[in-house]
Amino acid sequence: MAGYHALPLELLAEEFAKLPGIGLKSAQRLAYSIISRPEEDVERFANALLSAKRDIHYCPCCQNLTEMELCSVCADEERDHSLICVVESPKDVTALERTGEYTGVYHVLHGLISPIDGITPDKLRIRELLARLQDGKVREVIMATNPTVEGDATAMYLAQLLEPLKVKVTRLAFGLPVGGSLEYADEVTLFKALENRTAM
Amino acid sequence: MAGYHALPLELLAEEFAKLPGIGLKSAQRLAYSIISRPEEDVERFANALLSAKRDIHYCPCCQNLTEMELCSVCADEERDHSLICVVESPKDVTALERTGEYTGVYHVLHGLISPIDGITPDKLRIRELLARLQDGKVREVIMATNPTVEGDATAMYLAQLLEPLKVKVTRLAFGLPVGGSLEYADEVTLFKALENRTAM
Predict the structure, then answer these.
(1) Which residues pair with B80 in a beta bridge?
(2) Which run of H or of E encompasses A95?
(3) Between B101 and A125, where is the model more confident?
(4) Residues B9/A56, Cβ–Cβ less than 8 Å
(5) Where are the zinc fingers (C4-type) (chains A, B) (predicted)?
(6) Which of A8, A41, A64 sits opposite B55 (nearest CB)?
(7) C-alpha distance from B141 to closest chain A C-alpha (Å)
(8) Separation between Cα atoms, residue B138 and residue B151, nearest integer Å
(9) Could you tell me the domains of chain A?
(10) What are the distances in angstroms from CA B145 to CA B87, B92, B108, B117, B170?
(11) In this structure, what DSSP letter does residue B119 have?
(12) Among residues B9, B81, B70, B87, which one has the least CA distance to residue B42?
């Protein structure tokens, strides 16, 4: 009598519960919501799942996710291929692209150095970054990892690694977020904002 | 340059965003999480979606969701088929089954009367409930709709409708939730708890 549920519904809820941040209760709610949707809707969802997994691979150049041979940024000849922005994950590329201001290309590390989690430099796409710098055509590498311990450590590690290659290495500016307030800024951010003050 | 994303990933995120309570940001996070999972995992997810939609239908007797001809409760001869518990949705059946104490059968209305949302009695599975009562073998109908305006209205409507059938109609008890505290109970709950006090 225990655990009364239609079996396919239970299996679907289990699948939803495997997603990050979805608990068992939410998973059941999501599973029920599927039942009440038209069949072609559910088919579209199932196909989107399979297509995302099967058709997406890493861009051989920048390591970002793409369904094409080369990702749309790397394939774009209008962009400045001598400027590489190094980011942790594909989501960061999306965030930077939203600014609409960056005209260079990217390199996605797929992680940050974090020995405590067992993520050593050889687990990141660093070899691929070095390979892109061999022909000497790149003039600047921007470290756009997050301003966290891991992000800073990774940026520092890469900066040292790139030193012999004589390429300019820069880091994103830290300071007050636009729309933020001095009152609520933490000490480190405020210190960085003071340190990096610019002429008006 | 705007909206840079691999297309299949974008389509998958759109599908996730159609689920109840999942915003665009979460949907993107979920879509990314799919990419990093093994292909057989994603196939199992896609199949679970399709199977839940295709194989599940309403039990012809109690209207609960099932993948079998008759749901497991209605098909169980050990259960008391003369006792019907009327609930709003299949989730309520699961909740009641978890108690492990109820030995009767169910009837799922698939909604509550709510004229403001356009849900009139003819949109609920009331005809099916009346049909189950025709042979006079049912001795009691328990109204187990939620203690809300709509739940109470639906229970009241059904009680009136069943009156000529001379079947005993009862309602779930209202009172303090077990583990709750007087201090935080709302006035109506406390009033109901007082009103329905039992001898010790």
Answers:
(1) B104
(2) helix A90-99
(3) A125
(4) yes
(5) 59-74
(6) A8
(7) 20
(8) 22
(9) 7-55 (1.10.8.420), 75-199 (3.40.1360.10)
(10) 5, 9, 10, 17, 11
(11) B
(12) B9
pLDDT given at position B4: 55
Residue A124: strand, helix, or coil: coil
CA atoms within 13 A on the CB side of A122: 1
Evaluate if pTM is beyond 0.80.
Answer: no
Query: Terminal CA-to-CA distance of chain A, rounded, Å?
Result: 74
Residue of B11, B49, B59, B67 best to disrupt the A interface, most CBs of A under 10 A? B49
| Residue A50, both tokens | 């399979």
Strand partners, A84: A105, A141
Residues 6 to 35 of A: which have CB under 8 A from any B CB? 6-9, 11-12, 14-15, 18-22, 26, 28-35
Q: Tokens 């799922």 appear where?
A: B108
Kindly report, residue by residue over B80-130, the tens digit of the pLDDT: 999 999 999 988 888 888 888 889 999 999 999 999 999 999 999 999 999
B63 shares contact with chain A (CB less than 8 Å): no
* Phi and psi angles of residue B12, each rounded to the nearest 5 degrees, phi first: -65, -40
DSSP class of residue B156 equals H
Determine the distance from the C-alpha atom of residue B195 to the mean position of all C-alpha atoms in its chain, rounded to a whole number: 28
User: Which residue carries 């962009």 as its tokens?
Assistant: A79
Q: Counting Cβ atoms within 10 Å, is residue B179 exposed (0-12), middle (13-18) or buried (19+)?
A: exposed
Query: Given an 8 Å threshold on Cβ–Cβ distance, is B12 in contact with A52?
Result: yes
